[in-house]
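Encode chain A's predicted structure.
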Amino acid sequence: DGYLWVGTQEGLARFDGDRCTTFSRRNVPVITSNDVHTVRVAKNGVLWIGTAGGLLKYKDGRFEVVHTGSDSASTDNVWDIAEDHDGALWVGTSNGLIRIANGEPVRFDKDNGLPSQLVWSLLVDHDGSLIVGTGSGVCRIEGDLCKALGAGSAGARTVVNVMLRGRAGRLWFGTDLGLARLDRGTWRLFT
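Encoded structure for chain A:
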């Protein structure tokens, strides 16, 4: 839509090049929390907003709460959002990982192999698979299971806040221990 959207602790800010408009609980009652952690634009133009109070979508000038299958929207503190190659939405929360396809949420948790219920970061890899950074390591979604990535101690038991794939094909991670890299299945920590 040509705007710059930014998540802040005081709401969702929209910058048009001259002015900034902030959407918050004060002026948009459907917004569940002013603490916006992540903002993503889907291929279909829908703006997805992850907050400390759950998941929102913005489409055609209207905000809407998106129920993720939990008992209460406030249980889903949303940290990251990704859209896979098939158009499914993946939502990383403090209470597990949620896949929303065709409007139906499916929750992934420790029973599916997540190393931690706390999902900080998501990365749709070049092959279309989803890599999940948690409060206790990294895994890749394979079907309905999450399989641990790499060997060695750097990737296990570490908080993974952010991920990206570099030009040389290596996976890089910002963790609570410092910068880490996964190359050919082996972890290396740079501190």
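DSSP finds no helices and 19 strands in the chain.
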